[in-house]
Amino acid sequence: MTGMTGMGAFLRSHRIGIATVVLLVAGWEIAAWLSPKTVLAQTPLVPSFGNILGESLLGMSDYWKFPFWAPITSLGGEQTYLGAFLALGWHTSLTVLRLLAGVFLGTVLGVGLGLVLSWSPFVRRAAYMPLGVMRMVPLLAMIPLFQFWVGTNTAGVISFVAMATGAVLLVGTVNSVSNVPARYVEYARTLGASRLQIFARVIVPAILPEMMSSALLVLGLAWSAVIAGEYIGIDSGLGRILTFAQFMSNTGRMALVTLIVLALAAASNVFVRHLIRRALEWMPESDRR
Amino acid sequence: MPHQVAGNAIFNLVSSERLPGIGLPSGGYLPHLLFTARNVLTGGVIGVAVGIAAGLASAERREIGQVLGPIMSLFGTMPIIVLAPFFLIWFGLSGTAQVVQVAIYSAAILYVFTLRGVNNLSPAFSEYAATLGASATTRFLRVRLPGSLPEIFGGLRIAFAGNWGIAAATEMLGGQYGSGRVIVALRSVYDLTGIMAVVALLAVLALLVDGTLLAIRARLLRWASVANLSGAAR
Amino acid sequence: MSMDGINLDGVSVRYDPNVDELALNDITLRIPAGQFVCIVGKSGGGKSTLVRTLAGLVKPSQGSLTVGGKAVEGPGEDRGMVFQEDTVFPWLRVQDNVEFGLRARSMPKQERSRKAQEWLAAVGLADAAGKWPRELSGGMRKRVALATVFATEPETLIMDEPFGALDFVTRSVLHSVLLDLWRQTETTIVFVTHDIEEALVLGDRILIVSDGGILADLDCPLPRPRLEDERSSPEALAITREIVRRLGLSAGTPEGPA
């Protein structure tokens, strides 16, 4: 019922932000107008939105490789919008599924191992140094290793994403557990709670706020990992289309894929924020960020 | 295994028989590592400066925040590596692409952490300073900036933990130089130990930078361990 | 000598084995069951260490400690504790907070739910069961802590400056809530405070702890309830004066500006 007024209020309170976005888009379009063309693909160095949503979108049908529903362009077939949407849908789904599987695995393994290591304060302290080193390993540079260890396939990309997110979450979990205020644990002990009960009902909820504050960071890393993994690790997915387009200096196609990735990343960001708000419902407003 | 990696890293550091054979300039891993380090540090310093300045400005003036907020959250939300192909086309293969990439990533992170640092600081500190006669400039320089430093350092460490991977991944996509390029070249000859050696050397560089940050923080934030800055209600 | 109540025999606590300093130095003390004992003293004098040892959170380096005839090996079901800090778990609703200790005792769901309701009603929070702690004031959260610990029906209740952070009015109200619960349950209570007035309102007996030892052991036989008149009676003033003198605060302030 309040949809319209809500919208109006949103527009009013965000008018500077909205104007900024409009100016950015307009600036891009003007730059596109002025920019020279790339040598190879004859697309402008900065592609216009007309180019991105026209020619480049249609060109996506080049990436439809199945002998049904739409013509295969490399076999002399015509570029079709149907083929373009099928191709985008297919590669987008692959990327998203790899991301989800990797994040799921990484979360289970990273948080799980972090909690196991934290079970004994002694082990937690012993793990402090190795984890500090692990935190600084350039995870994105490790994709070729996963190609050798797991394979140049979806499993390789998924395990790479899982490793990247898992490593960060593992470090985060161990740190968060050591930051739980001692008074909560002591209070639970005086109330007669067993070690397992303290772990499940005190430690785990108590680390949630800190874990959640790194959740968005981990999400961004997961997106970077899946795209980087697809750049050189596999023959399908949005990251792979991006590198194909880069070989041809086809900036229009690159921009189109970038926009799709940005939209998906933004949507996942909103979704995770929503989850965080739900999970931290109990926190005082002032501490919830 | 670890000793093989360490051995590989040490023996190929300054000069390597191997690299010229796989299409790389002569010399060991070192010039490539230094190239990556140069890009990470240049981009990192630029990005950190921009991010902190933007964050402080946004915290001081709402209108600035409304302009910078959407831009920064755009870059904060997008996986920055998706821009690598663009930057390689726009800025060429000389390393500028990596610098820009790292700068944007660092700026987006520092913006968030700086803003959080200033906003989490209890207003009581600033009000107290005002009652003591501090001017607006003094309150900013002596109260809000130092008060947000703990958060800023948190952001710095996260940014510089990620910068190395971003620079190396960008180097994998193009260019004749850099540790990412070495990793891709070693991949083509299935040299796993070599790849791990380069990754390990990058981690050592990252640890050195992180250690430096920790030392600076220990010096600047000698006061921080006892202070409760958020002033949150008990 | 009866074995119930609390018995300390030559109890010493040393936090750091490499340092000579004792946090508690050879304390021998007997507290009969059902007594309300207040402990006052300067900060850093050992008050908290003493009660944390009773709770089982700190192990004595020497001496023996029994509560209700049993040696204290760690926190136990016979003892409960209320802390100075706000320890009500913010991630559990009020009802779940009060059930926490009962769940630890494996009480069936229905029984512990009913019991939690009863104790919430006893502290005047019957309507708050479904709320998050953040929706309550500091004083109300202390009531939740009281309900939580009394629900576990401890024989001994240890309280470490529990109301220290509250305003005067809230604290006074909580004093009467606590005294009511004490009368009904006949629990032994050991209550640390830095406030002489609070000790006078609550205690049967007041211990002054200083430098890890018991400096004085005073009876406080004022008639209850201790309203304004009782607290300003000559007996009360005599006890106050004795405490002030023992703490070295009477003539001038030799320690300079505080």
From TrEMBL, chain A:
One of its GO terms (cellular component) is plasma membrane. Pfam families: BPD_transp_1. The chain crosses the membrane at residues 96-119, 131-150, 156-174, 215-234, 254-272. It comes from the Bacteria. Residues 92-272 form the ABC transmembrane type-1 domain. CDD domains: TM_PBP2. It is a multi-pass membrane protein. Keywords: Cell membrane, Membrane, Transmembrane, Transmembrane helix, Transport. SUPFAM superfamilies: MetI-like. This is Putative aliphatic sulfonates transport permease protein SsuC. It comes from Roseisalinus antarcticus.
Automatic annotation (TrEMBL), chain B:
Residues 33-214 form the ABC transmembrane type-1 domain. It is a multi-pass membrane protein. Gene3D superfamilies: MetI-like (1.10.3720.10). The keyword Cell membrane applies. Keywords: Cell membrane, Membrane, Transmembrane, Transmembrane helix, Transport. GO terms for cellular component: plasma membrane. SUPFAM superfamilies: MetI-like. GO terms for biological process: transmembrane transport. It is found in: Cell membrane. The chain crosses the membrane at residues 40-59, 71-93, 99-118, 152-174, 194-216. Belongs to the binding-protein-dependent transport system permease family. This is Putative aliphatic sulfonates transport permease protein SsuC. It comes from Roseisalinus antarcticus.
TrEMBL record, chain C:
Residues 6-236 form the ABC transporter domain. SUPFAM superfamilies: P-loop containing nucleoside triphosphate hydrolases. It is an enzyme of class 3 (hydrolase). Its EC number is 3.6.3.-. It holds the Pfam family ABC_tran. GO terms for molecular function: ATP binding; ATP hydrolysis activity. Keywords: ATP-binding, Hydrolase, Nucleotide-binding, Transport. PROSITE patterns: ABC_TRANSPORTER_1 (PS00211), ABC_TRANSPORTER_2 (PS50893). Belongs to the ABC transporter superfamily. This is Bicarbonate transport ATP-binding protein CmpD.
